[in-house]
Design brief:
Layout (H helix, E strand, L loop, with lengths): L1 H8 L5 H8 L2 H18 L6 H13 L6 H9 L6 H13 L7 H8 L7 H14 L1 H7 L5 H11 L5 H16 L4 H15 L22 H12 L4 E4 L9 H16 L3 E6 L9 H13 L7 E3 L4 H13 L3 E4 L21 H12 L9 E4 L11 E5 L13 E3 L1 H11 L4 E5 L6 H10 L6 E5 L2 E3 L6 H9 L14 H7 L3 H11 L6 E3 L1 H15 L2 E2 L1 E2 L2 E6 L6 E6 L9 E6 L2 E5 L20 E3 L4 E10 L5 E10 L9 E2 L6 E8 L27 E9 L11 E4 L3 E5 L8 E8 L8
Parallel strand pairs: 1-2, 2-3, 8-9, 10-11, 12-24, 14-20, 18-21, 22-26
Antiparallel strand pairs: 4-5, 5-6, 6-7, 13-23, 14-17, 15-16, 18-19, 19-20, 22-23, 24-25, 25-26
Helix pairs in contact: 1-2, 3-4, 3-5, 4-5, 8-10, 8-11, 10-11, 12-14, 14-22, 18-19, 22-23
């Protein structure tokens, strides 16, 4: 059995999935044959996870086993490499049962060899957007985007669906701009309509939700709940205070607070502080700070620990009702999904009550006993633990308690106590839905409804608390707010505006399926916001000194904060005989297509009203250009130059930090992509520090997190490491435009 599990895991199945597969003898046998055939085709090479997943999906759906080797060959040779192609292949085989298949017909039906280029996708989507342009402009984000995707998928049958969706999203964003507050409220209302398609929003119909357990007292409890809440929608955002929030939490925050707002309801911020070993004050503070930074104000800030006494009393009641018992099995005996029933499951109620009281009084060692609930969860796990012993002082309650409730016990009861109407949680908690309903009903308490939605993940990053701690401990990143991470504190430090993060979450939407997005889509939302909100300044990252020999006198130049809308303000910068330009804006030898400064080609200075021409190139002892002597002429008196460049005069020295992706691969946690583990996948160029950059004096009074567009360079934010002697700027994102074309 162990050998078979290893074989199945070698194609990318996790251990649990491999063991589940083994329970089906026919499936196991066919999958083993497919793997053997695949290995025969590959020789010494291993089966990667993508091909392994395709093989598994093919085997589970294939009705005619005589076609196994045929389809395995197509998968391993990458002729079939998408779910869409696999479905077409299986349909073709089903409709062509004859012994000899026509390979040409099969290839055509399955899109074998068809390559859809990015340009074809862009052109097709552009035509579809143009077709619906008037309606899109009128309805904005209320327009049914599924129409666009449907037409795009029809026009681009064999294109990668994710790439098509990304292109649709980008072109819609380009047409409509970022979502306004009005759009976001309408989006929340649309989410509400989607969620309640099977029922109306009133909580009195919660009992019609799939899986909801109705007892003889359900309607009375719902009626009492309505009397206490007036039918108000009540949600909660319940993080554990043992780490910093990340981009996935931003979706949860937007959904919980947005759903409540769209329904004129309220949302609680509740800390699930039931594990004193991992909780710290800095996490409590940072979580609340990030929720408020995103623009949301909790109706109330509560803690699971507020209810410790009531939760204990309810546990005693659960034992009395015969639904819980004290168990002496150790932690290692309770791991997995096929654990045998506890030998103490049927112990007398009075005995469990006595032992639970002794647990409360600290008369057992940690791990010696637990309180378990008599129920089976949806994933087959039997009798989950309700209470365990931990001799660790609690952040809020000190040494009052030495037993602490688990998530499975606490979560639904706190929801019930706070009269939450909708428990919105990510898809992995679906396996806990039955225990959620069971526990409320076992104690005869009001039971909220639980809805699950797909997580939001980003490529090229990790968000696991354990892995981020590893990155910090090994010195790869400085702390949880290192701008290369995708924690919310890191994104704030890098300069991402909260509005952009909220817009990104709204664009992603709420679906049951897990969503994995590329970072550049988030960055596009950032640019859209900063383009309208970040005032312009000029900065030089790699300075080259320029002396203007014929400038009559020093002067000042007025620079608009927003060149596209000069009414939004301006600032003044000095302009003297000595200025600095980027080294890349000068080339001693002219090259085809180069439009900036050369000995034979003048260039304009942005905002200054001058065109400069090189008179002398000065080099250091190593032959490197270190200074230029130029003459200037009014831009009105000479031919318009091919390009205008930015510059600084009498500047401030500053440090600039440039960031790239922290990891080299899209999925650094995937052993198929990164066999040596995520720590081996660090991008050595993820951080570049420029210690001697120059910036114009208009930013001298900037405050931490103030944001600017350094013209022709990118968007930057002032870092907390800044001092009165030296400013430090983080590059938030690059500009859309290629600086070489400006």
């Amino acid at each position: 059995m162990a050998d078979m599990v290893s074989i199945f895991m070698s194609i990318g199945l996790n251990e649990q999935k491999a063991k589940e597969t083994l329970k089906n003898e026919a499936l196991s046998s066919t999958l083993k044959k497919a793997i053997e055939q695949a290995r025969g085709l590959l020789g010494s090479a291993s089966i990667d996870k993508t091909a392994g997943t395709m093989l598994y999906n093919m085997v589970t759906r294939l009705k005619d086993s005589t076609r196994l080797s045929f389809l395995t060959e197509y998968i391993i040779t990458r002729k079939i490499n998408s779910e869409l192609q696999l479905s077409a292949a299986l349909d073709f085989i089903k409709s062509h049962p004859q012994e000899n298949l026509d390979r040409l017909q099969f290839d055509a039906a399955c899109g074998v060899g068809v390559v859809v280029t990015p340009e074809q996708i862009e052109d097709a989507v552009e035509l579809i957007i143009r077709k619906h342009k008037d309606q899109l402009l009128a309805e904005r984000y209320r327009f049914n985007m599924g129409i666009l995707m449907g037409e795009a998928r029809t026009a681009l049958k064999w294109a990668d669906g994710k790439i098509v969706k990304n292109e649709v999203d980008m072109q819609v964003l380009h047409l409509l701009g970022p979502k306004t507050e009005a759009d976001l409220e309408k989006n929340s209302a649309a989410i509400t309509a989607c969620l309640t398609a099977k029922e109306v929003a009133e909580v009195t119909l919660n009992y019609k939700t799939e899986g909801y357990v109705v007892t003889p007292n359900t309607m009375n409890l719902l009626k009492k709940h309505l009397e206490e809440t007036g039918g108000q929608v009540r949600t909660r955002f319940p993080p554990e205070p043992n780490g910093i929030l990340h981009i996935g939490h931003a979706k949860a925050i937007n959904f919980n607070f947005g759903y409540a707002k769209a329904n004129n309801g309220i949302c609680f911020l509740r800390y699930d502080d039931t594990n004193p070993e991992k909780e710290e004050e800095k996490y409590f503070t940072a979580i609340k700070e990030m929720v408020e930074w995103l623009g949301y104000k909790p109706y109330a800030v509560t803690h699971a620990s507020d209810q410790f006494q009531l939760l204990y009393d309810l546990a005693v009641d659960l034992i009395r009702r015969g639904h819980a018992y004290v168990c002496h099995q150790r932690g290692e005996e309770l791991k997995g999904h096929n654990i045998p029933p506890s030998p103490w499951r049927e112990r007398p109620v009075e005995e469990s009550l006595l032992l639970f009281d002794r647990m409360r009084k600290g008369m057992f060692a940690e791990g010696e006993v637990t309180l378990r609930m008599k129920m089976v969860m949806e994933d087959g796990k039997m009798d989950p633990v309700a209470y365990r012993i931990k001799y660790t002082p609690h952040h809020r309650t000190g040494d009052t308690w030495c037993i602490y409730p688990t998530y499975d016990y606490t979560h639904c009861l706190c929801d019930s106590i706070e009269n939450i109407t909708h428990s919105l949680c990510t898809k992995e908690f679906q396996a806990r839905r039955s225990s959620y309903f069971w526990l409320c009903n076992a104690l005869d308490l009001y039971c909220p409804v639980q809805w699950e939605y797909g997580r939001l993940n980003l490529t090229y990053t990790v968000v696991s608390k354990r892995k981020i701690i590893k990155l910090v401990e090994t010195g790869i990143v400085r702390d949880w707010d290192d701008p290369r991470l995708f924690t919310l504190t890191a994104l704030r430090r890098r300069g991402f505006p909260p509005q952009a993060i909220n817009n990104f979450c709204a664009r992603v939407g709420v679906t049951v399926a897990q969503t994995t997005m590329e970072p550049h889509l988030l960055e596009a939302c950032v640019r859209e916001v900063l383009n309208d909100t970040a005032p312009r300044a000029m900065a030089i990252l790699e300075p080259l000194k320029v002396t203007i020999t014929n400038l009559p006198t020093s002067t000042e130049v007025r620079v608009p904060d927003f060149p596209a809308n000069e009414a939004k303000g301006s600032h003044v910068v000095p302009f003297s005989k000595t200025i600095f330009i980027e080294q890349s804006d000068f080339r001693e030898v002219m090259e085809k297509g180069y439009k900036r400064l050369t000995p034979d080609q003048p260039v304009g200075l942005r905002h200054a009203g001058y065109v400069i021409s090189v008179q002398r190139v000065i080099k250091d002892g190593c032959g490197k250009v270190c200074e230029l002597e130029v003459t200037c002429a009014s831009s009105d008196s000479v031919e318009k130059p091919k390009a205008f460049i930015h510059w600084v005069s009498d500047p401030l020295r500053c440090e600039v930090r440039l960031y790239e992706s922290l990891f080299l691969h899209k999925n650094p946690e995937d052993p198929a992509e990164v066999p040596a583990g995520f720590l081996s996948d660090i991008n050595p160029n993820s951080l570049t520090v420029i210690g001697s950059a120059l910036v114009d004096r208009s930013v001298g009074k900037a405050k931490v997190f103030d944001k600017f567009q350094f013209e022709r360079v990118g968007y930057f934010s002032l870092d907390p490491d800044s001092t009165s002697e030296k400013l430090v700027f983080n590059r938030t994102v690059t500009l859309k435009e290629d600086p070489g074309k400006i």
